[in-house]
Amino acid sequence: MENQPSAPTPRPIDEIDLALLRALQVDARAPIGTLSDAAGVSRATAYARLARLREEGIIDALTVTVHPKRVGLGVSAVVLIRSTPDNWKTWSSMVPLIEAMDEVEYAADLAGDIDLLLLVRLRDVEHLQRFVTEELRTRIPGIGSVRTMLVLNQTPERSLVLPSG
User: Fold this and answer.
1) What pLDDT sits at residue 25?
2) 126 φ/ψ angles, rounded to the nearest 5 degrees
3) What is the Cα 43 distance to its own chain's centre?
4) With left for phi above 0 and alpha for psi between -120 and 50, is residue 57 left, alpha or beta?
5) Cα–Cα distance, 42 to 38 (Å, whole number)
6) Which residues, listed in sequence order, are joined to residue 83 by a DSSP beta bridge?
7) CA–CA separation, 164 vs 7, rounded Å?
8) Are residues 148 and 128 in contact, defined by beta-carbon separation less than 8 angstroms?
9) CA nearest 9: which of 57, 61, 60?
């Protein structure tokens, strides 16, 4: 087995990187001039910093934020799942099952008395009922109990909370 060179150690994030990331969170399509102004650096420096942030995997993708209600998904819910100890799968084996469910926007493997948290977006309450009572239980083995909470209001979503400077 050959020794492969290790990946370069990522440089710590500094205030310039944070300023670029914050500007991208506001507008991922912002021109480089706007980004460089926001970070207080030259355009060349902004280009180089953005390239490094991509290479190091800090910037994974530039995405679109869709407003669920405007595309017909009027109900949001948090679903908390407690497993049965004898049938629960590993997180890595459950990821493809969760990713196959169009209704799931976010999922987290938890420590404590709840094993799995899902944020789901659905058309209406009937869709939520079908999802929880039928689809969820047939698609994910080992579910012991499910607790569902409707989201009444929410603040604007952020792609990530960045450290404050």
Assistant:
1) 86
2) -65, -40
3) 30
4) left
5) 10
6) 143
7) 28
8) yes
9) 57
| Across 83-110, average pLDDT | 88
Question: What proportions of the chain, in percent to the nearest 5, are helix, strand and coil?
Answer: 35, 20, 45
In the chain, what percentage of residues exceed pLDDT 90? 59
Q: Which amino acid is present at 77?
A: A
Residue 79 corresponds to which amino acid? V
Give the SS3 label for residue 88: coil
163 backbone dihedrals φ, ψ, rounded to 5°: -60, 145
DSSP 162: P
Q: What DSSP string describes 32-61?
A: HHHHHHHHTS-HHHHHHHHHHHHHTTSS--
CA atoms within 13 A on the CB side of 130: 10
Q: Residue 28 gets which letter from DSSP?
A: T
Could you give phi then psi for residue 37, rounded to 5 degrees?
-60, -45
127-154 pLDDT, tens per residue?
Answer: 999 999 999 988 888 888 999 999 999 8
**Looking at residues 93-109, what average pLDDT do you find?**
92
Backbone dihedral angles phi then psi of residue 16, each to the nearest 5 degrees: -65, -45
